[in-house]
Amino acid sequence: LARNFSGCDILWSLFVAAAKSYRFSSILHPFPPMYKSNSDDEKNILSLRNTMLLVPKLSPSLEFIPSL
What we know:
The protein is mostly helical. It has helices at residues 5-20, 24-27, 45-54. The chain has three helices and no strands.
């Protein structure tokens, strides 16, 4: 995070966009295994989306930005 804040932000944004898409099943690979049901490879997208809401926003805090 400290070395590449923009890269982390872009990757997280792509992940969130894929998870919010109606096509999440075909574009979100690999699907996080802890959100898969044991039977029939069912994906618990609602639980994943709820977990995403709990993740704090990325902040380009000065403590993470190396001095020039």
